[in-house]
Specification:
Shape: globular
Helix content: 40-55%
Oligomer: single chain
Number of strands: 14
Protein name: Cytochrome P450 302a1, mitochondrial
Keywords: Heme, Iron, Metal-binding, Monooxygenase, Oxidoreductase
Strand order of the largest sheet: 3-4-5-10-7
Structural class: alpha+beta
InterPro entries: CYP11_CYP27_families, Cyt_P450, Cyt_P450_CS, Cyt_P450_E_grp-I, Cyt_P450_sf
Cofactor: heme
Number of helices: 17
GO molecular function, one term: heme binding
Strand content: 5-15%
Bound molecules: protoporphyrin IX containing FE
């Protein structure tokens, strides 16, 4: 293990993804023995067959509870766990920071991930429509070709000019919440958040409003959101069972999703009436017209569930910690004196001021709440890679070509890394010395060349929406406890009906 000393002043110059890197690589490195020497004092590297093994565990996948097994295995089975699948293949689950580092350091310029094979097949089966299997499913040069189309991700020129419109969309979302409150002042927020997320990513990619925030939502938008959810579930199940059956389910859903997104993209290119956006930028830059809709489909697919789920979990935790909610609100009132105050006006001229990890303009409590939510209840459990060379993980030799799951959420639940890990304590990110914690473990957006392409957009949207919601409503929840099901994403296992009391001013 390498102990880290970072040269903090330079951190501000690095893009967010690199700041995580700075936790792992630093100017002064003090070599430490690998952590697994404590587990195997003989220091002998074990071979792959000696690794503790579980499975197949298909029922846990089918009832969407596999995340519970992942969290249990590190306590009951081992610090590195091999999971067998029914077809005889396997994957390796790693839980320790040093193993994350080994995997990321060796994943090359074109990191391999295997999880979206069913989408790859769907697109490969339709070569006349798709010139590429897509960003999520793509491998090697095929993936790199798409990724290079927006090298800095949905950030910079693909995000900053849209922030004022995104705030307008968020204001419409607040109005929609008000109009949906029932006589008890309650509402199920998550379906509205999906619509807000759809409208927001739609604006950035197409520079047009899609009608998602009308009272009942545009029918087409509702269908597309449903198609995106079903696609996530199918991707999840197809990784472990019933590939053929899942493929049959996928075809009509993707036929619909793809046809609509292709139509959106063609309209934006042909009608020239909407204004600058990701699609027109890519078109004017001369990118292959067959590739643009594929990238846009993957951006819609990536954006619809992740940010809304994070916000739902944040509000759920906050509704149980009114004191923390109140402290955040006090900070927000300083920044936005009335409910009508603009959020972005406060940071005009500060191009990066709203980023989640950036101290400064955004309320420190809002930032800490989101960071803690992403630690305890991230939308995605971890990160997958296929090793491109033999690697020693946790003291075992793992051969090249093995699928590896970096269990980031489960690692964030280990006392080795976080004091009182199962508690929601945003204060750990306000006063970093208050509770013991290890940096570089809470990496919910992945890492390296393939880290989440939507990260800057997601950061901005999380802060904007949570700030606006807390500035407009006192949020509480007094129904039964909410559990988690995982269908690619960590979702609530029941409707989360929040009480949202509008603030007076
Ligand atoms: C809280 C919000 C989000 C979280 C926690 C999240 C997390 C992740 C993670 C862990 C990965 C895999 C990274 C890796 O392999 O290293 C990923 C990939 C991806 N994300 Fe996100 N994401 C979020 C929001 C978004 C948004 C808003 C978009 C679209 C604007 C998006 C689009 C994508 C795409 C297209 C990929 C595949 C990238 C590639 O393989 O090159 N994500 N995301």
């Amino acid at each position: 293990m390498a102990l880290l000393k970072t040269n903090r002043p330079f951190l501000k110059l690095l893009p967010t993804g690199c700041r995580i890197l700075s936790c792992c690589f630093s100017s002064r490195i003090i070599e430490q023995p690998p952590y697994w020497h404590k587990i195997f004092p003989d220091k002998r590297i074990r071979n792959f067959d000696e690794m503790p093994t579980v499975g197949p565990v298909i029922e846990e996948y089918k009832n969407f509870k596999i995340h519970e097994s992942y969290q249990r295995w590190v306590k009951d089975v081992g610090h590195v766990v091999k999971e067998l699948f029914p077809d005889g293949s396997c994957c390796v689950h790693v839980y320790y920071k040093d193993d994350f580092k080994t995997v990321y350091q060796n994943d090359g310029g074109h990191p391999l991930r295997k999880s979206h094979g069913i989408i790859a097949k769907y697109r490969q089966d339709r070569p006349l429509i798709y010139g590429n299997v897509g960003l999520g499913p793509g491998l090697g040069a095929e993936w790199a070709k798409l990724r290079k189309m927006i090298p800095s991700g949905v950030g910079g020129k693909y995000y900053l000019p849209f922030r004022y419109d995104l705030e307008g969309i968020t204001n419409d979302f607040i109005e929609l919440i008000l109009s949906k409150l029932d006589k008890n002042g309650e509402v199920e927020l998550l379906p509205l958040l999906f619509r807000w997320a759809f409208e927001s990513i739609g604006f950035v990619v197409l520079n047009r409003h899609l009608g998602s925030l009308r009272f009942d939502g545009e029918e087409e938008v509702n269908n597309l959101i449903e198609a995106a959810h079903l696609t996530n579930e199918i991707v999840f199940l197809s990784n472990v069972c019933d590939f053929e059956k899942q493929y049959e389910r996928l075809v009509p859903i993707q036929d619909y999703f793809a046809s609509k997104v292709i139509q959106y993209v063609e309209d934006t290119i042909n009608l020239h009436s909407y204004g600058p956006c990701i699609v027109t930028n890519l078109w004017e830059a001369g990118f292959d017209v067959k590739l643009i809709p594929i990238l846009i489909m993957d951006l819609f697919q990536g954006a619809i569930a992740t940010v809304p789920l994070t916000l739902t979990w944040a509000l759920y935790h906050l509704s149980r910690c009114p004191g923390i909610q109140e402290r955040a609100r006090e900070e927000l009132i300083e920044r936005m004196p009335t409910k009508q105050s603009k959020y972005y006006k406060n940071i005009e001229g500060e191009r990066r001021g709203e980023l989640l990890l950036e101290p400064g303009h955004a309320s420190p409590h809002v930032q800490a709440i989101l960071r803690e939510t992403l630690r305890l209840s991230p939308p995605i459990i971890g990160n997958g890679r296929v090793s491109q060379k033999d690697l020693v993980l946790g003291g075992y030799m793992v051969p090249a070509g093995t699928m590896i799951v970096l269990q980031i959420q489960a690692a964030c639940m280990l006392e080795d890394y976080f004091e009182r890990p199962s508690e929601f304590l945003p204060d750990r990110y306000i006063d970093r010395n208050k509770y013991h914690q290890v940096t570089g473990v809470n990496i919910p957006f992945g890492f390296g060349a393939r880290f989440c392409i939507g990260q800057p957009f997601a950061h901005g949207q999380l802060i904007l929406a949570l700030s606006k919601i807390l500035r407009n409503f006192e949020v509480s929840y007094d129904r039964e406890e909410v559990g988690v099901i995982n269908r690619l994403h960590n979702e609530p296992d029941r409707p989360v009906i929040f009480k949202m009391k509008p603030l007076k001013q």
